[in-house]
Amino acid sequence: MYDQIREDKFFIIFYAGVTAIAIIASCYLLFRRANAIAPDVTPPVHLRRWTAAFFASIALNHLWYMPILFLTSSEDILITDLIGGLLDCMTVIPLALVVLLTMLQDRKRPLWPVAVMVAPIVVGNAWSVATRSYALLPMLYAYFLLMGIGFIIYMVRALRQYGRWLRDNYADLEHKEVWQGFVVLVIMLLVFGNYTYIYEGRAYIYAMLGGFAVLICYLLWRVETLSDLSVPLSLNLPVAEPVSAETEAEECCALSQATCNNIGALLQRHCIETQLYLQHDLSLFQLAKAIGTNRFYLSQYFTTKGMTYNAYINDLRISHFMSLYRESVDDHRPFTAHQLAQESGFRNYNTFSSAFKRKTGQPVTAWMKAAERKQAGLEGKDRHERLG
Fold first, then answer.
1. For residues 277 and 358, what is the distance between their CA atoms, to the nearest angstrom?
2. Hey, what domains does the chain have and what are their CATH numbers?
3. How far is it, in rounded angstroms, from Cα 106 to Cα 109?
4. Which of 19, 24, 115, 322 would suit a FRET pair with 284, their CA atoms being 20 to 30 Å apart?
């Protein structure tokens, strides 16, 4: 393989360019405090650092492999290649897994299982270096695939839990969900196994190198557009008088009907009547503070009602949108659906459109046309009654 690309100057330039991209991305995440990609988003600091380490590992490993393009001795190529594989397994693979786990902010997950998972690969590659042999690589590749599949199964389950946690605690999910980054990194992990253990000619290596360039750019964008959910947003919220609460030992029990009615009344007074639901990024914790209860009771209240916190806030915003629409039509004011959605608390029109369809069973445009026909019918009936 190396004989095929040694004389390819374009490949060497491309290889050096991808290495430079990884170095620049790593330095950006480590040393630039401000967010140049999404200035209005504050990403998690620890995620930035782990991702910077991941990019640095890619750059350093590329630098390690670079001399192999100029070596002619088969023995030198063999030992350089084997050591490079060992470095990959000790740095790039575990750091990729850590980045995946760090993206999930519902709880702090232990990272030691990552070391346990990659330990057999590291030991196997170390043995290959010591014996200067590729004999173990088929077994290591099989283990890598099994490890990747197991990790994917774990992450699918963790992502489902994370999605529920987001819907239970946040009104706006923009800049919070991570499934796209998860899919990309999982593909990268599986492809990396092929890149490490299987060589299929020059076109394959070009494709893999281009894939790394795309991955670095995409992951940099994903990290910088992911909100840090450990830092509560500073909103000036009204705080109601705290309600009486049962003891902590009773928190695992279902709320009584009287408590549910009390929380419902507090929501009506301090959220609906004040239109607090129009606040962007209003979290469950902030709403609980505003109405004078705790997060657990409020969460239990929504569970009792068979809805998530996200659905509750979105329903209020959609009802507000409908009211604004009818008022605008009655007053003959010019408007757009995007404008009314933004005034109703939605930052993203696609989010509004999806939530609207889930609530009403029809797209926004279809509902607006039906409302116009209904309004026209009522006006026609009023004119007929006046003339009659």
1. 18
2. 2-224 (1.20.1070), 237-306 (no CATH), 309-388 (1.10.10.60)
3. 9
4. 322
Q: Letter for the amino acid at 96?
A: A
| DSSP one-letter string for 103-147 | H--SS---SHHHHHHHHHHHHHHHHHHHHT--TTHHHHHHHHHHH
Return d(Cα 62, Cα 84) in angstroms, integer: 9
Per the CB < 8 A criterion, the answer to whether 93 and 192 are in contact is yes
The Cβ of residue 130 has, within 10 Å, a number of other Cβ atoms equal to 9
Q: Alpha-carbon distance 213 to 192, whole Å?
A: 13
Summarize pLDDT for 211-266 with one digit per residue, the tens: 888 889 989 999 999 999 975 554 455 545 554 444 333 443 457 888 888 999 99
Where do runs of H (alpha helix) occur along the chain?
Answer: 2-6, 9-31, 45-65, 74-87, 93-103, 112-131, 137-169, 179-197, 202-224, 257-267, 284-291, 295-304, 309-330, 337-343, 349-360, 364-387
Q: Closest Cα to residue 107, out of 195, 166, 39? A: 166
State the burial class of residue 146 (Cβ atoms within 10 Å of its Cβ: 0-12, 13-18, 19+).
exposed
Residues 140 and 121: beta-carbon distance below 8 Å? yes
Tokens of 17: 């360019």
Single pTM value for the model? 0.82
Residue 170's DSSP bridge partners are: 283
